[in-house]
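[step 3/7] fold_predict: job queued, chain A
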Amino acid sequence: MASSITNVETYWKTDELMDIFRSAVREAQDQSRRQGVPNVYYFDGERYFELPSGEMTQSLADNATGEIE
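[step 4/7] structure written:
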């Protein structure tokens, strides 16, 4: 019985921490958007940029040279 209680308590604590982490990530993403900085994501080993406009792209233009990464 004690093992079951510990497992339930561990589950709830983990769930609570995941809520905190998700909230922190969402806030960081929102802050990046407000500052005009792209958010970077990796899906299946591929890098994607979410531009402040909401557009998703796999490459960014270098502001100094106009070259594509």
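[step 5/7] annotate
Residues 2-57 form one domain.
DSSP finds one helix and three strands in the chain.
exit 0
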